[in-house]
Amino acid sequence: QGQLVESGGGLVQAGGSLRLSCAASGRTFTNYAMGWFRQAPGKEREFVAAINWDGYSTSYADSVKGRFTISRDKAKNTLYLQMNSLKPEDTAVYYCSSRRSLGIATIPTDYAYWGPGTQVTVSS
């Protein structure tokens, strides 16, 4: 059984940056597409970014395009999300996830593994 654990969340001022990491253990996720989702209080979980199994294809939500960058280090079995120019509306719990297949997906139900989440709070 695999585990995903996020880190790197915190409190940052608007315009600042954070880098989230997601460490995988218990199994290798290197052959699976992975993604980041977020959920704000009172809202549904929403897609943020995804990367395919080899790291050469990515997808982003329109709301973060040009500000966030997803990447993966297969040797370290780790997924990253670099977040720049953060806005108060980016405040949410951010979740790392993995599929059981190679290609990108943007719907939460297409993902099989989830981390517990890390809080990101952006102050204005």
In a few lines, what is going on in this structure?
The chain has strands spanning 3-7, 10-13, 18-25, 34-39, 46-51, 58-60, 68-73, 78-83, 92-98, 113-114, 118-123.
In total, the number of strands is 11
Mean pLDDT: 95
Q: How far from one another are the termini?
A: 40 Å
Number of helices: 0
Biggest pleated sheet: 7 strands, mixed
State which percent range the strand residues make up.
over 45%
Question: What is the radius of gyration computed over CA atoms, rounded to a whole number of angstroms?
Answer: 13 Å
Order of helices and strands: EEEEEEEEEEE
Question: Which range best describes the helical content: under 10%, 10-25%, 25-40%, 40-55%, 55-70% or over 70%?
Answer: under 10%
| Poorly predicted spans | none
Shape: globular
Structural class: mainly beta
